[in-house]
TrEMBL record:
Organism for this UniProt entry: Coemansia spiralis
Known function: Component of the Dom34-Hbs1 complex, a complex that recognizes stalled ribosomes and triggers the No-Go Decay (NGD) pathway. In the Dom34-Hbs1 complex, dom34 recognizes ribosomes stalled at the 3' end of an mRNA and engages stalled ribosomes by destabilizing mRNA in the mRNA channel. Following ribosome-binding, the Dom34-Hbs1 complex promotes the disassembly of stalled ribosomes, followed by degradation of damaged mRNAs as part of the NGD pathway.
SMART domains given in the database record: eRF1_1 (SM01194)
GO biological process: nonfunctional rRNA decay; nuclear-transcribed mRNA catabolic process, no-go decay; nuclear-transcribed mRNA catabolic process, non-stop decay; ribosome disassembly; RNA surveillance
Protein name (record): Protein DOM34 homolog
Molecular-function annotations in GO: metal ion binding
């Protein structure tokens, strides 16, 4: 998703202008849009016109409408988003107050206006528009002369840089030109990793190649890091995972991700964090139930006591049509964040999100035991 414009006033009202660029962007937009928001977007409408002879024809006209949202329909499989509402802006084809349905399209800008932009919505925009916040696995596939630096998100692989450097062939009796070409090639990969990989977010960097190219590059990178006292690379040495691939092209990542051993080694990445957190919650519920709370009332009391270590909520709660319900969960997140709790917003599209929904959609692992007698009023 690309953010074109954002204007938020002091009272938290305002508008954002966005362009969806990937199918999963529609999921983010679905989570942003609420009933009574205003949406301005381009659409196509059938317009009837009558000729001088009395015959009536219908033409498809592209126009720009602004509607007050009443209903939102999201097709998960197709990634299609359809919004229904009443027109509120002057238009020669659609009268004010008339109903119209807008189908949001890929690569078509739209503007969303809210009377109040809350913390969850603003964070979702930030995450959706910053690819590095979505990706916690990076990969560099390579063979001599070609390398591709990628970021892996939950739904897609994004190429950040493609590196092509001519490497002369080895000649009998003289390897100077070859070694010089390889060094230029490795240096560009090293610079690309420094430029495109944020090690504060990335948990694993996969280095894949046929033969020994990945090992030779890794040795070169570490030697350069020691020489330049590059603490970023040296401190994150353990994050590099060297694997065999059939080529240096991006497509070689598919065979890597199917490897069961690789899946195990990627267990701490963001895609597995939710499952790990819910497992930890169930274990705590069995071992020390006074440190595992679920349900809004109990979790709210834990937040009031500053006891929450990890707060888990499903994004479904923030799509509540009932504004007071939505706001109380936003306050819960804000209050927990103020006491340095880890906040995990689970996607309701995933198994871990479905599990959390079975626990009312909100649960917490506490830093210390807290005994709450539900039958006794404070």
């Amino acid at each position: 998703m690309k953010l074109l414009h954002q204007r938020i006033e002091k009272d938290q009202s305002g508008s954002v202008r966005l362009i969806p660029e990937q199918p999963e962007d529609m999921w983010h937009i679905y989570n942003l849009i609420q009933k009574s928001d205003q949406l301005e977007a381009s659409t196509v409408r059938g317009v009837k016109s009558e000729t001088s002879t009395g015959s009536v024809s219908t033409d498809r006209v592209r126009l720009r409408l602004t509607i007050v949202i009443e209903d939102v329909f999201f097709d998960v499989q197709a990634g299609a988003l359809r919004i229904n509402g009443r027109n509120i802006a002057e238009n020669k084809f659609v009268g004010i107050g008339q109903y119209h349905t807008l189908d949001l399209e890929m690569n078509q800008p739209f503007t969303l206006r809210k009377s109040e932009w809350d913390l969850i919505s603003l964070q979702r925009i930030k995450d959706a528009c910053d690819i590095t916040r979505q990706a916690d696995v990076a990969a560099v596939t390579m063979h001599e002369g070609l390398a591709v630096i990628c970021l892996l998100t939950q739904y897609m692989t994004v190429v950040r840089q493609r590196i092509e450097v001519p490497v002369p062939r080895k000649r009998r009796g003289s390897t100077t030109n070859y070694e010089s070409g390889i060094e230029r090639f490795y240096d560009q990969i090293y610079r690309g990793i420094k430029q495109h990989i944020d090690f504060s977010i990335i948990k694993v960097v996969i280095l894949g190649s046929p033969g020994f190219v990945r090992d030779q590059f890794f040795d070169y990178m570490m030697a350069q890091a020691v020489k330049a006292d590059d603490k970023t690379i040296l401190e994150n040495k353990s994050k590099f995972l060297r694997v065999h691939t059939s080529s240096g092209h991006k497509g070689a990542l598919e065979e890597v991700m199917r490897d069961p051993q690789i899946k195990t080694q990627l267990a701490d990445t963001k895609s597995a964090q939710e499952a790990k957190a819910i497992d930890s919650f169930y274990q705590m519920l069995n071992k020390d139930p006074d440190r595992a709370f679920y349900g809004y009332d109990d979790v709210r009391k834990a937040a009031d006591n500053g006891a929450i270590g990890t707060l888990m909520v499903t994004d479904e709660l923030f799509r509540a049509a009932d504004i007071p319900t939505r706001k109380k969960y936003i306050r819960l997140v804000e209050d927990s964040k103020a006491t340095n709790a880890d906040i995990l917003v689970f996607s309701s599209l995933h198994v871990s999100g479905e599990q959390l929904n079975q626990l009312t959609g909100v649960a917490a692992i506490l830093n210390f035991p807290l005994i709450i007698d539900s039958d006794v009023e404070d």
